[in-house]
Amino acid sequence: QVQLVESGGGLVQPGESLRLSCTASKFTLEYYAIGWFRQAPGKEREGVSCVPSSASTKYYKGYSKDRFTISRNNAENMVYLQMNSLKPEDTAIYFCAAGPLCGQFTLEGQGTQVIVSS
Known about the structure:
This protein starts with a strand and ends with a strand. It is mostly beta strands. It contains no helices and eleven strands.
């Protein structure tokens, strides 16, 4: 079954870091744009970051630009989202998605929960 699987979420205190991972079964992430999204309780889903297949550039929303880093490990068929200096408002379910271009996603994972709380 073709699917994306996220991992790495958890409960952390404000100021701490987490690294989320996105991997795929039955397809290679290297050939797709991979994006991260999040949805907080009671809020709409919002984009976090995206890396095109070429990895020539990386896209971030304003709130994530200075604290989050998206990266690929093609040898491991993984895409990571390194999140530093986490804030309570970063609490959400984080999803990764794959598609031909950033903004044109055709497959999404089930998500991983991130809770930032003291």
